[in-house]
Structures are given as structure tokens and as C-alpha cells.
């Protein structure tokens, strides 16, 4: 065997090993929604959903690159296939995305008002008495149409830090109530030191699952969704999923 042939074989196998070891980059976007999606530069933790997503895909030779964006913009970019996934979403009203079957967590949507307020959510009809603060692009467990059809007035806020802005508007009595995910509300009320001035006053609908959404326009989306299901099953069986929940002070609720 001559020297050139040996050199060719060596280079060939080195090249193949390099390609095999290269990770596929997944570009994922979402808005800051701690304790689910957190800014690690601020609190040194990435959040429950980011931890789960990275654990699943890193083990399958993917590299996850996550970027915070306003939710309405994330949805538009996801629908066009400009990013690989959105994190995190309800299935309802998201027909342009493919979802895994096993939810990341069961989510509960809750109302918050000032402590001196007597209003309490009983049913959609009770919304006729309040000016409600929402986030642009959110569907609130699939209940957005009923909310908009019944509320006295709605103010939807876009851009970054939408929930924090809504809570400050509530504090300043610019709106009567804020609706958002229960654990997320708890986190930001504590962060903004508003616990003594605000209270929870009812939940809307039943618990609904939150998922990673993969654009239907991208060819690998179903494969990625299947990867999440396999990964979640493995994480729950090994106890890794439960450990991550505990890290953020959360438990599984049926």
C-alpha cells in the first residue's frame, strides 16, 4: 500500500469522525417566563423548560441555542420556519406547529388583583366588571376568545418583560386584574416585592399542558417532536425530570 493511499484513508476517517461529532444546532425562541424560561445571567438558572429541552437534545447530538424574544414575534418567526422551535406553547390555536404528545408540565391560569379589590373570578361572565391586563399573543390555555368576548376592557401588552409591566400597571391601578400562569405569577410577584399588595383570586379553566412547538413548514419537526417524547419518557423513568422540578420548587400535579 503506497503512502498516498494510506494518507487518503487516514484523512477520510478523520473527516468522517469530525462530521459524526458535529452537533446539529437548534435555534429556539421564547419570552422570559420564569421559573420556566429564565435569564441565567440574572439568576444563574435557565429555567425548568430550558433545562429539560437541553437535557433531551444534548444527549442526541444537538446543540440548543435559546434566545429571548417577545412572544408575538416568536410565534410569527416560528410559523414561517425561521426558527426550529418555540418554547413553550399550548396546543390550542397553534395549528401551524407540531407538538410532542407528553406535556412538559400541566399549567394553571390564574387571576391576580390588588388586595383591597373585592372582585373574584367565578365564570367568564364575571369578566364584564373588570379591565384585564394580558400579554399579546398568549391564548391562556385556549380560553382567549371567551376572555375577549366577555371582559369589560382588555389591554394587551407586547415587547419584553410583558408580565412585569402588567403587574406594575396593576399596582398603579391602571388595570383591575392580571391573568397569567400560576407559577410564573408567583415568581414575578415575589421578584417585584408585590406580595403584600396583591392576591390570587381564581383560576380560569382546567390545567392544560405546555409544549415545545415545532414549525410544520420544517421537514424535521416531527422527528424533533418524537425525540422530545422519547426524552421525557426516559427522564421521568430515571428520575431526572423530577429532580429538575424540585430544583425550581415545583411538583407534578394531576
From TrEMBL:
Query: Which key words are in the record?
Result: Signal
Could you confirm whether the keyword Signal appears in this record?
Answer: yes
- Cited SMART domains: PBPb
Q: Which Pfam families match?
A: SBP_bac_3
Solute-binding protein family 3/N-terminal domain: which residues? 42-252
Q: Specify the superkingdom.
A: Bacteria
Q: Does the keyword Ribonucleoprotein apply?
A: no
This chain belongs to the protein called: Transporter substrate-binding domain-containing protein
> What species is given as this protein's source?
Fluviispira multicolorata
Amino acid at each position: 500500500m503506497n503512502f498516498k493511499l494510506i494518507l487518503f484513508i487516514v484523512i477520510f476517517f478523520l473527516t468522517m469522525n469530525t462530521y459524526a461529532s458535529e452537533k446539529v444546532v437548534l435555534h429556539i425562541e421564547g419570552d422570559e417566563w420564569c421559573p420556566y424560561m429564565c435569564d441565567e445571567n440574572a439568576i444563574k438558572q435557565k429555567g425548568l423548560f430550558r433545562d429539560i429541552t437541553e437535557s433531551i437534545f444534548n444527549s442526541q447530538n444537538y446543540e440548543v441555542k435559546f434566545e429571548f424574544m417577545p412572544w408575538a414575534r416568536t410565534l410569527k418567526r416560528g410559523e414561517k420556519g425561521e426558527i426550529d422551535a418555540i418554547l413553550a406553547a399550548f396546543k390550542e390555536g397553534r395549528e401551524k406547529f407540531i407538538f410532542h404528545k407528553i406535556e412538559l408540565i400541566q399549567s394553571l391560569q390564574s387571576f391576580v388583583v390588588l388586595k383591597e379589590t373585592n372582585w373574584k373570578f367565578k365564570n367568564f361572565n364575571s369578566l364584564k366588571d373588570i379591565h384585564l391586563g394580558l400579554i399579546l399573543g398568549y391564548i391562556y390555555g385556549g380560553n382567549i376568545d371567551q376572555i375577549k368576548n366577555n371582559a369589560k376592557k382588555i389591554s394587551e401588552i407586547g415587547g419584553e418583560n410583558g408580565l412585569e409591566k402588567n403587574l406594575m400597571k396593576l399596582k398603579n391601578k391602571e388595570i383591575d386584574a392580571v391573568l397569567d400562569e400560576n407559577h410564573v405569577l408567583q415568581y414575578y410577584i415575589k421578584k417585584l416585592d408585590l406580595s403584600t399588595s396583591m392576591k390570587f383570586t381564581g383560576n380560569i379553566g382546567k390545567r392544560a399542558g405546555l409544549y415545545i412547538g415545532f414549525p410544520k413548514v420544517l421537514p424535521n419537526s416531527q422527528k424533533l417532536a418524537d425525540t422530545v417524547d422519547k426524552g421525557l419518557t426516559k427522564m421521568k423513568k430515571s428520575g431526572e425530570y423530577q429532580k429538575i422540578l424540585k430544583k425550581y420548587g415545583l411538583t407534578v400535579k394531576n
